[in-house]
Design brief:
2 copies of one chain form a homodimer. Helices cover 38% and strands 20% of the residues of chain A. Chain A is globular. The first copy, chain A, is of the alpha/beta class. The mean pLDDT of chain A is 95. Strand 7 of chain A pairs antiparallel with strand 7 of chain B. The complex binds 3-isopropylmalic acid (IPM) (2 copies). One 3-isopropylmalic acid sits at the interface of chains A and B.
Chain lengths: 337, 337
C-alpha cells in the first residue's frame, strides 16, 4: 500500500483533559494531511466482564485489528472488582516494551539542556506481577517475576532500536548485586542479545548509581533498558530532567508489532474542560506513532512545528508558565506546519 | 558521665582509600579535642565462620559493646561462600534505619542550590530479603518482604527525627498503587505513626512521581521515609543533586540505640594510597556520629570547619575539581578549627 492510503488507527481520548488534547492531535493531523482515520473509543461506564475493567472488549479489538493506536490519560475509577485501565491495556495487548524518548526542548529552560536519551522499559512482569499475599499477620510478601522470554524480547527491542535509530550504546539498568537471580537473569539475557549487536556498545549500571549519574550528567546515557519498576522510576526521573510528563512522548510496543502511543501524564481533572491543558505529550506521542508507521515526513513536519512553537515561546500553556489556551497553542502549531 | 569523659567508638577504616580518609577523621578529632578513643577493626583476610563473612566476630562485638562506630568503604571480596560486608553489618547489628541528610554545600556548585532534605531508609527487609529462586527454567522470582514491625520501627524513627530536628513534614515514598499489600502495609504503618505526631505534616508520594519532583524541585521535600530499595535509589539520586556520594554523610541506626555512621561511596582502589581521596563523606558521617552522642558543640565546630574549607574553595581534592591532597585538605580543615 502506498503512503497516501488511509490508515485506520484507534484513538482513546481518555478522561479529564484527554478529549481536549486528543482534539488538538486531530486538528494537527488534519492540517498536516496525515492519512489517518481515527476509530475513537471511550472508557465505558461499567465494567466489561470480558476485560474485567472499564475498557470495553470492542476497544481492545479495535487496537488488535488496527495494530496502531493513540491514548490519552485514563483515570482508573476507584472501587473493587476491576482492573486498572493502563494495566489492562498492557496485559491484554501484551505491550511488552514502553519506549520513551527524552530530549531537552530547545527554548524551554530546565536545569538540564543536554538530555538526549531513550528509556526502554519491560512492561509486563517484574514487580507488576500482581502476586502478593500475607504470610502471617503483619508479614506480607510480593513476588517479582523475571522470565527469560520477556527479558530477551525487551533486550532485543532495545538493541534493534539502538541500531535502527543511530544510537551507540545500550545500558542495562539493574540491581543484580542484591537480586542476583531475577536481575541476574535479566542481565544474562541482555548480554546474550548484546553479542548479536557488536556495533552497539553495551554496559550494565546499578540502578542507584544510574539515578545519581542521571541527575549529575544525563549526557552520559544513550539507550537504557530495564525491568518494569526500574523503568517506571527512571522514565519519570528523566521526564523531570526536561520539564515533566507533560512534555514527554511514550509508545508501547506489543507482540506482533502493535504500537500504542500514549501521553503518560495524569488526566488533570482540575483543569478539564477549561481549554488550559498542554497537548504536547500527546502530540509528541502521536509523532512516535507516525514514526512507527514509517510516516517519517509527516512525523518530522509535525515534530518541528511543535518544537518551534515551544521554542519561540509566544504560545505556551499555563503549565509551561504561559497564558495560551489549548486551542491557541494548537493553532500556533498548525500555523507552523 | 560528663561530656569530657572519653567515649570508646569502633572504627572500621575499610579498604582502598578507607585508611587514608579514616586518618583524616582521626586528625580532625584530635585537633578538635573530641573525647573519643577509637577501637580500630579491619576486615579480615578470611571468612569468619561465626559471621559468614570477612568481618570478624570481634569487630561486630566491638560495635555491640561501644554502641557507636564509624565505617569507611568496604569492598566485598569476590567469591562464593560468604556474605557482603555491608549486608552482614546491617543484619548482624540490626541496623534498621539508614539516615542520610542531604544539603547543598555552599560554594560547591551543582545544578541545585536548594537541597535540604533527609532520606530515611528501612534497611533490613523489602527487596533485600535474599529470598530468590528459579520457579522453572527461564522463570525466576524474588520475594519482597514487608513487616509491620520493621515498618513501624522506621516510621517511628522518621517522625521522631523530624520532631527532634525541627523538621515539618514526613513524606512516605511507595508504589502501593501496584504493590498494594506490601507497600500498602508500609503506608498503613506510617499513617499509624503519623497520628501520634499531629505537629508533623504527613504525605504519601508514589516513587516515580517522587523522583520526577526531586529533579524538578528538591525544595519540595523535607524528611522522606521509605522501604529498602526505594531508599537505596532515592538516597543516591539525592546525593547526585548535591555532587555525589563523596559529599554525603550516612548513619545507620540499630535496635537499642546503636549508631554506625558510614561513608557510602566506594573504596576507589584506583586512587588508594595516593593521598588523593576526598574525606568529606566520612568526615560528615563522623559529625552525624557526634550528634548521635549529643556532642553537638564538637559536631558544629567540625561541620563548620569542613563546610568553610569547601566553600572557600582554596583546598579541594581532585574529585571536586581541585588539586589538593587528602592531607592538605585535612590540614585546611584543622586550621579552621
Ligand atoms: C499509573 C501507574 C500504574 C503506572 C505504572 O506504574 O506503570 C504509571 O506510573 C506509568 O508509568 O504508566
Ligand atoms: C553496595 C550495595 C549492596 C548497597 C545497597 O544496595 O544497599 C549500597 O548501594 C548502599 O546503598 O549502601
Amino acid at each position: 500500500s502506498s503512503a497516501t492510503d488511509t490508515i485506520r488507527a484507534t484513538l482513546f481520548p481518555g478522561d479529564g483533559i484527554g478529549p481536549e488534547i486528543a482534539e488538538s492531535v486531530k486538528q494537527v493531523f488534519r492540517t498536516a494531511e496525515v492519512p489517518i482515520e481515527w476509530e475513537e473509543h471511550y472508557v465505558g461506564d461499567q465494567v466489561d466482564p470480558r476485560t474485567q475493567s472499564f475498557l470495553t472488549w470492542e476497544s481492545l479489538e479495535s487496537v488488535r485489528r488496527n495494530r496502531v493506536g493513540l491514548k490519552g490519560p485514563m483515570a482508573t475509577p476507584i472501587g473493587k472488582g476491576h482492573r486498572s485501565l493502563n494495566l489492562t491495556l498492557r496485559k491484554e495487548l501484551n505491550l511488552y516494551a514502553n519506549v520513551r524518548p527524552c530530549n531537552s526542548l530547545p527554548g524551554y529552560k530546565t536545569r538540564y539542556d543536554d538530555v538526549n536519551l531513550i528509556t526502554i522499559r519491560e512492561n509486563t512482569e517484574g514487580e507488576y506481577s500482581g502476586l502478593e499475599h500475607q504470610v502471617v499477620r503483619g508479614v506480607v510478601e510480593s513476588l517479582k517475576i523475571i522470565t527469560r522470554q520477556a527479558s530477551l524480547r525487551v533486550a532485543e527491542y532495545a538493541f534493534h532500536y539502538a541500531k535502527t535509530h543511530g544510537r551507540e550504546r545500550v545500558s542495562a539498568i539493574h540491581k543484580a548485586n542484591i537480586m542476583q537471580k531475577t536481575d541476574g537473569l535479566f542481565l544474562k539475557c541482555c548480554r546474550e542479545v548484546a553479542e548479536k549487536y557488536p556495533e552497539i556498545a553495551y554496559e550494565e549500571v546499578v540502578i542507584d548509581n544510574c539515578c545519581m549519574m542521571l541527575v549529575k550528567n544525563p549526557a552520559l546515557f544513550d539507550v537504557l533498558v530495564m525491568p518494569n519498576l526500574y523503568g517506571d522510576i527512571i522514565s519519570d526521573l528523566c521526564a523531570g530532567l526536561i520539564g515533566g510528563l507533560g512534555l514527554t512522548p511514550s509508545c508501547n510496543i506489543g507482540e506482533g508489532g502493535i504500537a500504542l502511543a500514549e501521553a503518560v501524564h495524569g488526566s488533570a481533572p482540575d483543569i478539564a474542560g477549561k481549554n488550559m491543558a498542554n497537548p504536547t505529550a500527546l502530540l509528541l506521542s502521536s509523532v512516535s506513532m507516525l514514526r512507527h508507521l514509517n510516516l517519517h515526513d509527516k512525523a518530522d513536519r509535525i515534530q518541528d512545528a511543535i518544537l518551534n512553537t515551544i521554542a519561540e515561546g509566544k504560545y505556551r500553556t499555563a503549565d509551561l508558565g504561559g497564558t495560551s489556551t489549548t486551542t491557541d497553542f494548537t493553532k500556533a502549531i498548525c500555523d507552523h506546519l
